[in-house]
TrEMBL record:
This is Nodulation protein L. One of its GO terms (molecular function) is acetyltransferase activity. Acetyltransferase implicated in the O-acetylation of Nod factors. The keyword Nucleus does not apply. Residues 6-59 form the Maltose/galactoside acetyltransferase domain. It comes from Bradyrhizobium macuxiense. Pfam families: Hexapep, Mac. Keywords: Acyltransferase, Nodulation, Repeat, Transferase. GO terms for cellular component: cytosol. Belongs to the transferase hexapeptide repeat family. InterPro entries: Hexapep (IPR001451), Hexapep_transf_CS (IPR018357), Hexapeptide_acetyltransf (IPR051159), Mac_dom (IPR024688), Trimer_LpxA-like_sf (IPR011004).
Amino acid sequence: MNRTEKQKMLAGELYRPDAELAADHTAAEQWMARYNASGAAQASELHALLAVRFRRVGKDAVIRPPFFCDYGTNISLGDGVFLNFNCVILDVVEVTIGDRTQIGPAVQIYTADHPRDAATRRSGLEFGRPIRIGSDVWIGGGAIILPGVTIGDGALIGAGSVVTRDVAPGATVAGNPARPRAA
């Protein structure tokens, strides 16, 4: 079965960016230019713009511009989600953010990954691992969430943390790499 590079990407398999993916990325860049230029727009206008590009946008979900992503089409936001200014989501595969989750400014969420073997990397292959963020999570400003991480409901991620592993529901983690802390 011959699958497209996009199908491989979405399945989390090794893929090589091609013309179809370049066109999808260009469409996302054009959308971001519109979204980020809308700074003072009403919340309903911003919500409508998000709905044009994202897989799912829950009721009252808000992203303050500027915002940056690879495609947008792999992002699902629950009800009442809030992302502050300057957030980045590299969404080569699915990113799911649960209801009422609050994300501080300059948070970076990366599903994009690369082979660990130099020869494979040199060939231009890459892959992605999905990120799942539960409901009622708080992620402090400047945190980085790495590929494949799941953050459980009610967790708290300290500002500036680098989250390299799954975070249990209700846990508080902080640091680089992020480690459990007393609440």
